[in-house]
Design brief:
Iron-sulfur cluster assembly protein CyaY; 2 helices; single chain; 6-stranded antiparallel sheet; CyaY; globular; 6 strands; Frataxin_CS; alpha+beta
C-alpha cells in the first residue's frame, strides 16, 4: 500500500516516538539500561553489553529498516501496521531482537 509522503512521515515518526517512549519508561522503571539516540529519521538503541539496534526511516522507499544482530529487516505499511517481507510485524521483530541482545525479555507494544 502506498502512502502519501505526509502520511508516511507521520506514521514512521510516530513509530520512532513509540519506541523512544518505551525505552524511556524502562529507564524510569529501572527495567533495563538502554540508551536511545535519535537524529532525524534514525534511532539508535545501545543495549547492555555494547550491542546496538538501528532503526532508520527510508522515505523514498516508504520503508522502515531495522538492523540488529539477527539481521537486517525492511518494513512497509500494509494499511494497518508495519510488516516485513516475511509478514512479521515491526514491534514484534524489534521485541525479539532487543530481548536477544539485552539478555532479558523486552516487549515493545503498540
Amino acid at each position: 500500500m502506498s502512502l502519501s509522503d505526509a502520511d508516511y512521515l507521520a506514521k514512521s515518526h510516530a513509530l520512532l516516538a513509540r519506541v523512544e517512549q518505551q525505552v524511556d519508561a524502562w529507564l524510569d522503571d529501572d527495567v533495563v539500561d538502554i540508551d536511545a539516540h535519535r537524529t532525524g529519521g534514525l534511532l539508535e538503541l545501545s543495549l547492555p553489553g555494547g550491542s546496538k539496534i538501528v532503526i532508520n526511516t527510508q522515505p523514498p522507499l516508504q520503508e522502515i529498516w531495522l538492523a540488529a544482530r539477527s539481521g537486517g529487516y525492511h518494513f512497509r505499511w500494509d494499511g494497518a501496521q508495519w510488516v516485513d517481507r516475511e509478514g512479521q510485524e515491526f514491534l514484534a521483530r524489534l521485541s525479539r531482537s532487543a530481548s536477544e541482545q539485552a539478555g532479558q525479555a523486552l516487549s515493545f507494544s503498540a
